[in-house]
Write a structure and sequence with these properties.
Layout: H1 2-7, E1 13-15, H2 20-24, H3 27-34, E2 36-40, H4 43-51, H5 57-66, H6 71-96, E3 103-107, H7 116-130, E4 135-140, H8 145-154, E5 159-162, H9 167-177
Parallel strand pairs: 1-2, 2-3, 3-4, 4-5
Helix pairs in contact: 7-8, 8-9
Length: 178
C-alpha cells in the first residue's frame, strides 16, 4: 500500500478537508484504514462544508432551539464537535505512532494573524475546549505569529505552523520549537 511505503520515508498522508459526513458515514474510519494519518482544517474548509451540504442542518436547528447564539458561537460549536469527532477517530493512529501522527488541526481565526496576544489567547481557549491530545492549533508563521508559536509550544499546546514561505520563517519556527 502506498501509505505504508511513504511512512518508510518519514512522510504521511493528511486530508485537507473536513465535513460532518466524514464522521457520520464512517468514511473517516475507512480513510484511516486506507492510510490517512491526519486532517487539517480551516475556516474556508468549514464554510464550504456548511454551505455546500445539508450535513449541519439538524445540528444547527437543535443548537438554535437551545438558546440565542451568535453566528460565530454556532460556527464554533459545530466545528468543535467535528474536530473532536475526527480526533477520536484518529486516536488509534496517534496511539500507535506514539504521537507522531493521528492529529486533527484547527486554525485560529485569520483575523488574528497579526495579533500575537490574540492568537495566544484564542489558541489556548480552543486547545482547552477541544480537550484532545491529538489536536493541533494552526498558527500562521507571520512575524506576530512567531512569539505566539514559542509561547504556545512552551505551554504544551500542539501547534501546526502554517504559511511558512521562506527559509528564514522555517528557521524562526525551528528556533521557537527548540
Amino acid at each position: 500500500m502506498l501509505a505504508s511505503a511513504v511512512l518508510k520515508y518519514g512522510q504521511s498522508f493528511w486530508l485537507d478537508y473536513m465535513r460532518r459526513n466524514l464522521l457520520t458515514s464512517g468514511q473517516l474510519e475507512r480513510l484511516r484504514e486506507e492510510g490517512i494519518r491526519g486532517i487539517t482544517s480551516n475556516p474556508s474548509i468549514f464554510e464550504k462544508a456548511f454551505s455546500g451540504s445539508s450535513d449541519y442542518d439538524d445540528a444547527l436547528g437543535a443548537l438554535e432551539a437551545q438558546e440565542d447564539r451568535s453566528a460565530l458561537a454556532l460556527y464554533e460549536t459545530l466545528v468543535v464537535q467535528d474536530i473532536q469527532g475526527a480526533a477520536d477517530v484518529l486516536r488509534p493512529v496517534y496511539d500507535e505512532s506514539a504521537g507522531a501522527d493521528g492529529y486533527v488541526s484547527l486554525e485560529v481565526s485569520p483575523r488574528l494573524a497579526h495579533d500575537t496576544a490574540g492568537t495566544v489567547a484564542e489558541a489556548r481557549r480552543l486547545w482547552a475546549r477541544l480537550d484532545r491530545p491529538n489536536v493541533m492549533i494552526k498558527v500562521p508563521a507571520a512575524d506576530e505569529g512567531m512569539p505566539a508559536i514559542r509561547e504556545l509550544l512552551a505551554g504544551g499546546v500542539n501547534v501546526n505552523v502554517t504559511l511558512m514561505f521562506s527559509l528564514d520563517a522555517y528557521r524562526q519556527v525551528a528556533d521557537a520549537w527548540l
